[in-house]
Amino acid sequence: GWGSQSSKVHIHHSTWLHFPGHNLRWILTFILLFVLVCEIAEGIVSDGVSESRHLHLYMPAGMAFLAAITSVVYYHNIETSNFPKLLIALLFYWTLAFITKTIKFVKFCDNGVGFSQLRFCLTGLLVILYGMLLAVEINVIRVRRYVFFKTPKEVKPPEDLQDLGVRFLQPFVNLLSKGTYWWMNTFIKTAHKKPIDLKTIGKLPIAMRALTNYILLNEAFEAQKNKRSSSPQGSRSIWRALCCAFGRPLLLSSTFRILADLLGFAGPLCISGIVHNVGKGNNTIRPQTKILGVFFISSQEFLSNAYVLAVLLFFALLLQRTFLQASYYVAIETGINLRGAI
């Protein structure tokens, strides 16, 4: 309980007000895991065409993958328990990871490794990701003032989390739970045992109640009425008020849908590449670049492997469905809030 800031306020749910940069940290960690998977695959493919075994091509990336998973689990438990001082461990880890990857990147540059080699690009991406995660960690220190400051910032959980009647926790869970709807397992288990009623579902969070959304829409409508302009009032003013009050979530829903549609092109491209490589009957690449005693493959050589394309196809379909469901959810939730406001 060193430095705990949760002892004075009792909450009824295993979640807390998110630390600064919560969503950005999760997104960066997901990207980091994907890049590390690519680095592991690149190391295995490079090692497969070498004359001798080189475990250093993929073993460090595998350890980094496990460390990244450990870091996000560690962060989640710290955040739900509100023990920000324990984030010091992550601060040291991101710093060391950033320094070591930067040294590796500089060594590649000194030995003539360039953008034509995939390993060079992956190392550069890892330097950027570790640097951004380090910046997120420093920003938590700056905002929460939990260390190196005499007076840490006092925070209180949202009123919804202090209310036992609120069981709709979508706005308060972490990004992974939101994307997979893991937080709904309690409802699913309860409904499996017996029919659920309104008491079991509980109250809505304050931000989703009709009165809250009515106030939001009314303020936007009054702001449109008070504007001195030559444009006529009436339906146009109402549409502008609706866009002002609920435009951001609808824009977010549209962004998710666009990303899902773009990822839809990955499936046919990956399947076409797999069929092409299988049809050739020879899935072994022959890289020509050999530096520091090992082969360095290019992005084109990497993507000519059918197994690599199969893994990319899996991730593309997974992300496509995730973005599509997120788009549906945000659109439906915004529509309910909008109708309640009207």
Q: What are the key terms here?
A:
single chain, 342 residues, mainly alpha, 2 domains, 12 helices, 64% helix
Helix content: 55-70%
| Individual helix count | 12
- Enumerate the strands of the largest sheet in spatial order, edge to edge or round the barrel: 1-2
Order of helices and strands: HHHHHHHHHHEEHH
InterPro entries: ABC_transporter_C-like, ABCC8/9
Protein name: ABCC8 protein
Keywords: ATP-binding, Glycoprotein, Membrane, Nucleotide-binding, Repeat, Transmembrane, Transmembrane helix
GO molecular function: ATP binding; ATPase-coupled transmembrane transporter activity; sulfonylurea receptor activity
Please characterize this protein's 3D structure.
This protein is mainly α and 342 residues long. The protein folds into 2 domains: 1-149, no CATH class; 193-341, no CATH class. Helices cover 64% and strands 1% of the residues. The chain has 12 helices and 2 strands. The protein has a two-stranded antiparallel sheet with strand order 1-2. The longest helix is centred in the last third of the chain and has 36 residues, at 306-341.
Structural topology:
Elements (H helix, E strand, L loop, with lengths): L21 H27 L10 H23 L6 H23 L7 H27 L30 H6 L4 H9 L4 H4 L8 H17 L8 H29 L2 H15 L9 E2 L2 E2 L3 H4 L3 H36 L1
Antiparallel strand pairs: 1-2
Brief summary of the model shown:
Belongs to the ABC transporter superfamily. ABCC family. Conjugate transporter (TC 3.A.1.208) subfamily. The protein has 342 residues and is mainly α.
